[in-house]
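Project standup — Tuesday

K.O.: blocked on the structure for the chain from last sprint. Re-posting the sequence here as requested.
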Amino acid sequence: MKSFDCAIIGAGPTGSYLAEQLSIKGLKVGLFEKKKAVGKPIQCTGLLTKEIEKYADINSGFVDNITEKIRLCSKNNELVIKSKEYVVDREKFDNYFLDRAKNAGAKVFLGQEFVNCKENKIIFSNNSINSARIIGCDGPLSRVNKVFGIIKKMKYLLGKQFVIKTKAKSDEYKAYFDEEFRDFFAWQVPVSKDLSRVGIASENHSSVNEKLNFFIKSRKIKGKIRGINAGLIPLFNPFASNYFKSRKISAYLFGDAAGFVKASTGGGIIPSFKAIDESLKSIINGKKPFLFNSKKELCAHLLAHNMMKKFNDNDYDSIIGSLKTKKSVKILQEISRDDFIRMGAKLLINNPWILRHFRIH
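H.V.: unblocked you, prediction finished:
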């Protein structure tokens, strides 16, 4: 029976990045993926902020498009800000990080589905290993979480998008805010000048199809549907731990499995990478990571998400209008949404009256 210092379940970007970092630190790492290939099916927009430049070589062939502007659209108002965003091919992106994990020394096992754990014996569908640490990077419906019962309750948005052949500005990502889908927002992400990912997400899963059709019709987005993607987006739970320890094994959750996702935007890759960087020493020592900085940022996103659920069209129109000042636009252009607390604090100092929209109904 093979033995590892650490067994990572799930070979998406989070699992592969973690495998690479722990291998660099000298641990013997096994990276296990139930699918025979990574990166499919596509379940996200593939849109990343420029923060990804800190973690990846963006010239490695996984970038489909680079947008230079974000257009924020309410019912009766718009704001355009300059912001570099990367639209990635998730299959190529995921395999880029998988190759890095392999090159760092991690042993990769595809087609290995995690089943259960007995003491430090980790059981797969057709194999077993020993490890003192198991880390679930296996998505929102994590099997690792289910086996160890680390997070008892997790809420999810359901996201759905069409890949549509339609004319669009290839340098511009659009985000739409409307009281008809107030519990999140809608998006149009250009893969090229004639292909876009157009979607929406909602906490009310049964309403997603209706809201997506309403959005496409109301915004007059026309074109041939070339593909359909859907997936669960976990909502961060500030009271949940990502750690469990028994006498024989330490168990952790990262990425979507832990709910490390920005509730205001649905993005999880950068927050997960940051949480990993903050946790490496704790994982090596088999201890609980406290993740103060990561959880602080994710709490701010969750607060914004909960407040935005109460907005109406007048609120969205007014807020977007208030952000058109030179100072506000400069803040939005210079500070990434992955540095959300600093960006929000500067915006509030510049426009304190925005707080009147954050009311209790």
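K.O.: great, moving the ticket to review. The mean pLDDT is 94. The chain has three domains: 2-42+90-152+239-291, 64-88+155-234, 302-357.
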